[in-house]
Amino acid sequence: MALHVPKAPGFASMLKDGSRHFSGMEESVYRNIKACKEFAESLKSAYGPCGMNKMVINHLEKLFVTNDAATIMQELDVEHPAAKIMVMASQMQEQEVGDGTNFVIIFCAALLEAAGDLLQMGLTPSEIVGGYEMALDKALEILPTLVFDEIKDYRNEAEVLKVVRSAVMSKQLGNEDNLAKLITKACVSILPENTAFNVDNVRVCKILGSGLGNSEVVHGLVFKRNVESTIIKKNKAKIAVFSCPIDIAQTETKGTVLIKSAKELKNFSAGEETLLENQIKDIVDAGVNVVVSGGKIGDMAMHFLNKYDIMAVRLLSKFDLRRVCKATNSSVYPKLEKPSVEDLGYADDVYVDEVGDTAIVVFRVGTNESRISTIVLRGATDNYLDDLERAVNDGVNAFKAVTRDQKLLPGAGAVELELARQISSYGDTLPGLEQYSVKKYASALESFIKVFSDNSGMKASEVLAKLYALHHEGKTTYGFNIEDGSDGTVDVKDIGIVDIYLGKQWAIQYATNAASTILQVDQIIMAKRAGGPKARPVKGNDADDD
Question: What φ, ψ does residue 241 adopt, rounded to 5°?
């Protein structure tokens, strides 16, 4: 008979074998703080215009070279539960504003690191969280007073340009002017009169070769593929969109045809051809000269399309079909039939072009009527183009944020430093233990200037002292200067670096809430992992590892 080994008494005895349980300050709180701090350390060096790139290889062995925190976190499968809370907070920031994900991670980790010092001093987590909540309320009260500019008209490209430029600069320093002009032009041209701006209406087409200077904005859609027909250009195009294949129709039920002679066989196939030709002729009679299909286009159908001088484009994605409909104001037909005039789309030009050695199909719609625009990006490598696309997405999201709230804050760390200065002064007025938490909250806000300094190769303590001196004199728009040979300070009004009010407001809230949630955890209980196939072994780079 097997010997029964009893479990150790306590909480662990109630859990299944394989479950893990951590409790107490040392095992849960400090462990969480350490994990979040280490996770943020890896992203700190990617923050700001001088941030370094990370090389990430995901589970599908796809390579990413980027300094975009949202992409890094998306491709890394973070396991630690506390670090996951930080990642979730930054994902909420991405959904709400579209930028500032790294800000949330770094600020949250700085708050947790400061909380670790306070816990060692003897404060309880609830007292620290209470102080952080007071500091957050004060920060949100101060933030509107730091607004120094406002966009009067977001349909004016010149006004919006400075906002988009600042957003792009943190990802693509040196290319910000070119990219900002492309993004602003693309966004303003499709801005709807009444409804909200949709970021999906600005598409990106990446074509290898040449350089960023040869990128352009197309009012309409661009697809990296060739046309099916021999006709390659149509002006003032009337477009019919079909989600079905354009071919000889198959019967819905199976049947048997008995053919007794060669004449009957000839007549049978001729009947099919006549039926297909009549269907194509009906489409021509409706005024159509461009056909877009979501399925295959048969050889016989192609013959008749060429015969009647119709351009045929095949798109494999149903989402691309929807975009064509949106851009040209047309409706999709699920079967091959004569379209009504109201359901036809219109484009100024539909044509085939060659960019580098890549064939593209362009649906160009007039500037005023266009509801979708495409930025055609050029670059030397796929990774570089992917990084440009991420910078474009940040710029488009910045434009969307401006359409919701036009208030602007000084950038380059000026807002964070002024908030730190005022919150620190506020902490001195508090009588209770919360004053320590409030002051640590202020020191966590200072960490952004330190990160900028470290990434730019300057001495953080010197730059911080100079900026504090300027802010005490009332020069609240002075921030960090990344230029070589400078003293590390600059008036951001002069160089036009701005932050979006909405982005900063949400980022501070999400980071503080995430830090408070993590601090209030006193037990970690992890159930046994569900069964499944074993993980694939990691391939080594060394001959010894194989």
Answer: -115, 125
Ranges of H-type helices in 76-200: 81-96, 101-121, 125-142, 157-169, 176-189
* Chain centroid offset of residue 288 CA: 38
Please give the DSSP secondary-structure letter assigned to residue 129. H
Residue 287 to residue 438: CA distance in whole angstroms: 71
Q: Is-contact 128 416, C-beta < 8 A? A: no
pLDDT on residue 542: 45
Q: How far apart are CA 463 and CA 487, in angstroms?
A: 7
pLDDT averaged over every residue in the chain: 81
Q: 202, 190 in Cβ contact below 8 A?
A: yes
* Burial (Cβ within 10 Å: 0-12, 13-18, ≥19) of residue 433: middle
| Model pLDDT for residues 437-462, shown as the tens digit of each residue | 888 888 888 888 888 888 888 888 88
Widest distance between CA atoms in the chain: 106
* Predicted pLDDT at 127: 85
Residue 368, pLDDT score? 58
Q: What is the Cα–Cα distance from 266 to 264, expressed in whole angstroms?
A: 5
Strands (E), 356-440: 358-364, 373-379, 407-410
Nearest to 434 by CA among 140, 133, 143: 133
User: 227 and 313 in contact (C-beta within 8 Å)?
Assistant: yes
CA distances from 53 to 49, 57, 99, 211, 265 (A): 11, 13, 17, 20, 67
Hey, what are 502's tokens? 């909405």
Query: What are the structure tokens assigned to 5, written together?
Result: 């080994």
Q: Could you tell me which of 36, 52, 34, 46 has the C-alpha nearest to residue 70?
A: 46
State the residue for tokens 């993004």: 183
pLDDT tier at 22, thresholds 50, 70, 90:
low
Six-digit token string for 415: 């807002």
The arithmetic mean of pLDDT across residues 307-317, rounded, is 85
- DSSP one-letter code for 336: S
Q: For residue 346, name the pLDDT band (cuts at 50, 70, 90).
A: confident
Asked if pLDDT for residue 541 goes beyond 50, the answer is no
Residues in the chain: 546
132, two tokens? 């952080």
Q: Are 416 and 445 in contact (CB under 8 A)?
A: yes
For residues 394 and 199, the answer to whether their CB atoms sit within 8 Å is no
**C-alpha gyration radius of the chain:** 30
Lookup result for tokens 């409790």: 23
- Joined together, the tokens standing for residue 331 give 């409706």
Backbone angles phi, psi at 154, to 5 degrees: -80, 5
In this structure, what are the phi and psi dihedrals at residue 225, rounded to the nearest 5 degrees?
-165, 170
Q: In this model, does residue 362 exceed pLDDT 80?
A: yes
Tokens describing residue 457? 């190769």
